[in-house]
Fold this sequence. Notes:
By secondary structure, the chain is an alpha/beta fold.
Amino acid sequence: MTDQAAIAVGLATAALPTPPATPPPRLERVALPGLVRGVTIELWQQINAEPHAAGRILSQRLRRDRSLGSKGRRTASAVIYGLIRHGEVLRLLVRCAGGDPADPLHLYLTWLVVGDGLDPALAAEQLPGVDFALLTDARAIVSEQAVGLEPAQALALGGSLPLWLAQTWWQELGAEAGELIAAFAQRPPMATRANSSRIDRASLAARLAQEGVVSTPGRLAPHSLVFEDRRNIHILPSFREGLFEVQDEGSQLLAELARPSPGAHIVDFCAGAGGKALALADAGARVLALDVREGALRIAERRMARAGQSIRYQLMEEHGPPPVEAGWADTVLVDAPCSSSGVLRRHPEMRWRLTPAWVQDRADLQRSILARAAPLVRPGARLVYGTCSLLRQENQAVLADFLAQHPSFEVQERLGDDGVLWPQRTGTDGFFGVAMVRRGA
Ligand SMILES: C[S@@+](CC[C@H](N)C(=O)[O-])C[C@H]1O[C@@H](n2cnc3c(N)ncnc32)[C@H](O)[C@@H]1O
């Protein structure tokens, strides 16, 4: 095999699903006609008709179909996310096994064989025309197909990514891009942040253990605990008492970049549902949380009440002046709306939204938001810019333009590697974050 072919094979197979050693319980039952199979296939058809709304369609339907039961809902959701994360590879495997990749039942059963470890003979009973036995060596099939591909094409196949995005990350990371798509193919761990004004991390871990939850300290964020298994947190007394929040470690690190200190005035300019605002308030800062979406701020208010914190929330116009006087803030955090290219493991459906035009649109919005937020920073104070994107266009390019147009600001600190938290290196979601200082204190 030539070097190029070996690289292509490595990239195309990097994110292949591996069936669990012990197949999930009731796997055989969900392969047969029945409620779970029917709902999942119907969901897949709806999602294909309206791909941008995949997350909403999935959550609304699963909430509505109570008869599925919690296990059925979990199965349907896991299969749908499997089909989204591995769509390209699954279509290839279906074709190689003599099936029809446009038929949702073919994809569904293929996922159960390749992703969940269903006995191929049982799948073949459902669809006698498809040679599911071939799929037990999915790696060999994908490798063979990858041999003639360019590296970026192989990455697009293995990661089920648009080709332009695969080209971008291939250029940026080379063979390490395979590790990135492998990280995106994993379900994210359940990371939490101890509400440190009420309980320290070790005491929270002990309290969780009493509630039957095994957790370990996160690798990077000082207040983080990572659950060994995903849990319904809403039934945990410690959650109801506001002792912790669910928050990715990368998101916690971005909030830390704002250096929240007791009494500091912090404007969270894009507060959304308040994940970072809560972390800032937990450190004792006086937080003013702004956003253009009223619904998000209502959620943030509910979270604040549970956490027992005090944050001022204010709705703001998308264009007019922000509702706070210039120079008020010791720190302004701009956690900007972005393409979400860094959180594909959490929102795999976002890959369908990622077009160059959409990314450009996000970058334009980020420039205008940063320019509106900057005057709120008092001289000598901090402006933190962050996104959950891994694209230069939204990160380094927006920052460079901002610095060129605002010479009174200079970069003081960066997250991770030159501002970037790469999931394959940190185990976090992908984030970009820089802290600038406004000269002239
Ligand atoms: C990445 S999300 C924020 C997440 C939030 N900081 C958290 O930690 O949970 C970006 C937010 O920017 C808001 N946004 C969109 N356009 C905006 C604008 N023109 N000005 C301010 N915020 C905007 C969105 O409503 C969204 O809530």
